[in-house]
Amino acid sequence: MKARRVEGLDPAAPLRADAARIVRTRLDELRAFAPVALQAPASKTQHDMRIAAKRLRYVLEIVGPCFGPEADAARDAARRLQSVLGEIHDCDLMLPRAWGIESLRVRLRERRERLFGEFVDLWRDSAPTWAALGRSLDRHTFSLLRGESRGD
Q: Residue ranges per domain, the chain?
């Protein structure tokens, strides 16, 4: 899956301005997968969502300090999301390889079902985290527009 293009980057702008654009793009990219990924058989979309979570997590590891504790919470939520979606993907990869070993296939399907439930719960529980990150990005962007740069 190719990452969304980040529009409006300005190398001469303060770090927070461009960082906010990048984080917003990665957050929107992640959220866009949810309607399909929250359906159990959507393995391709779930995998793409894992990649989007990884991208968001990595950018937050670098620029998170610009956006406060909301960015830390979002980074941790993205890490958990990436992890559970990775385990689901592992089940999806193993199922075809376990052809003819029915007991293993049953266990893999059960594991995938349990992990999918964890994913749904995690996504639901993370909704306030994504919203808080969005508000933090808005606050910092608004303060930059008003000329309240802290020099970062």
A: 15-145
Q: What is the largest CA-CA distance in the chain?
A: 65
Query: How far apart (Å, rounded) are the C-alpha atoms in residues 104 and 118?
Result: 21
Count CB-CB contacts under 10 A for residue 145.
Answer: 9
User: Number of C-alpha atoms within 13 angstroms, CB side, residue 73?
Assistant: 15
Position 75, amino acid: R
Query: What CA–CA distance (Å, rounded) separates 23 from 135?
Result: 12
The Cα 59–Cα 90 span in angstroms is 24
Q: Is residue 16 within 8 Å of residue 66, measured between CB atoms?
A: yes
Q: What is the pLDDT of residues 27-66, one digit of tens each?
A: 999 999 999 999 999 999 999 999 999 999 999 999 999 9
N- to C-terminal Cα separation, the chain: 32
